[in-house]
Amino acid sequence: MDFSFTWYFQNRVLDKRPYITRGMCIRVVRNPLRVELQTDRKRVRFWAEVCANHPQCLPGSEIQAMRIEYFPDTDSLYIDLAERAGVDAQEVGDGIVIDLDADGHPVGIDIDQASKHLDLRTLDLRRFPLGAEKVAG
């Protein structure tokens, strides 16, 4: 597979981040840990693990499997993002709370009255890496 880079990426992104190389980008696109469609739905963000001494590495930013669990007795949905303990919470919408760790990083999302916010009959996963191991359990 051939890779090309846009003018913007070469001249705005790579120039501002000399620690990122084209080779690194190609490796991440070929084997990402996570893929995220940007809010404009035109751009895609690819995630990779970096070594602990990398300039953009957050302490304790381990990569783990995301877990989504629904609790029918309370009609709540919890999205577990990290195994770190939540020590604070911020309500970002009616019944939608982000749990934060001691450093202010998100560790989970709690959605109360989930059936009023979401269609719980389907889970539509898009642009996930082909190496996804477990989709139901």
Give the uncertain stretches in residue-range form.
none
Number of strands: 7
Q: Separation of termini?
A: 34 Å
The largest sheet is:
5 strands, antiparallel
Structural class: alpha+beta
> How would you spell out the order of helices and strands?
HHEEEEEEEH
Explain the overall architecture.
The structure is a single chain. The protein is an alpha+beta fold. The protein contains 3 helices and 7 strands. The strands form 2 sheets. The chain has a 5-stranded antiparallel beta sheet with strand order 3-4-7-6-5. It starts with 6 loop residues before the first helix and ends in a 20-residue tail after the last helix. The relative contact order is 0.13. The mean pLDDT is 77.
Topology readout:
Elements: H1 7-16, H2 22-30, E1 34-37, E2 44-47, E3 67-71, E4 76-80, E5 88-93, E6 96-100, E7 106-111, H3 114-117
Outline of the structure:
This protein has 137 residues and is α+β, with helices and mostly antiparallel strands.
Which key features would you list for this structure?
3 helices; 26% strand; alpha+beta; 137 residues; elongated
